[in-house]
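For reference, the entry.
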Amino acid sequence: MKCIPITLLMSLAVVSPLTMAADDKPIINLKPVMIESKELNTTTLGLKYEIKDTYHFGGKPTATTTEGQTVTFGDIKEATHGGNGYVGFDANGTWTVDKADNPTSTSTAALKAGYHNFQGNFSLDTGLDYKLEGDQDYSEKNSMYGLFLDSYYSFTRDRSTYVIMGLGYDKIDAAEDSGRTALTTTDTYDRFSVDLLLKYSLEKLNKKKYGITSLELKYSYYEEVDAPAAIVNANLDTFNSRTFVINFNRGLYVAYSSGNLPFDKQNDRVFQIGFDQNLFD
């Protein structure tokens, strides 16, 4: 299966001079976390990570709050009044010392090139991406390329309560996924995905030192198009995951998840408690 070369996506960066927004800082979130798996009957320590950087061209980010303060890009998509093109990198996953004890081992790394439009409390992103999806060290993995459409809507003037929905359609090469190749010789396929994030801010209501600052609900759904019978019978044609997160002051959070993603160990119920810190804050 032929995939879009990474160098092609990176070359889009030279279409016009790139300017990095003053407040569009790189995101490097590291989250020490304790993970408890109901199905594996294990408790382990791990490190969740999110690394993200985006470069804009063809437009200058100018979004401000009603008080005149620059919008923080850590919580919402790259914000501009009007539209611009962008290229970006995004990687996330969870590391544990023994990956056999990691119930949430699905990791992704993506290069994106697209167009972004932001007007007031609504934004829309569309473009192409090239991704790797695998277990925590990518010894088992899929490579893929596809189209994405992301939308963002804020319910409040300060943009602290919002919903983000992402739609994707990918061409996947699963030649390096031994779990799949053991079941079928069909190692290339199409997949549709939906991701939803709803964040509700409680920061203005709770000023305590370790009070609750926000609640989050996350949902992901993946479905293979025209999956072979062996994949359907093994329940590997669809994946879904639901996560509820409570965020506290000082970066503390607790989360409960059910379901599984493509490289997770199994359909599981997982409890997590950890600490969230962006190194560039």
Remarks:
- Helices lie at 6-11, 178-181, 229-233.
- The longest strand covers residues 42-57.
- The domain at 6-278 is CATH 2.40.160.40 (Porin).
- Confidence is low (pLDDT under 50) at residues 1-23, 61-80.
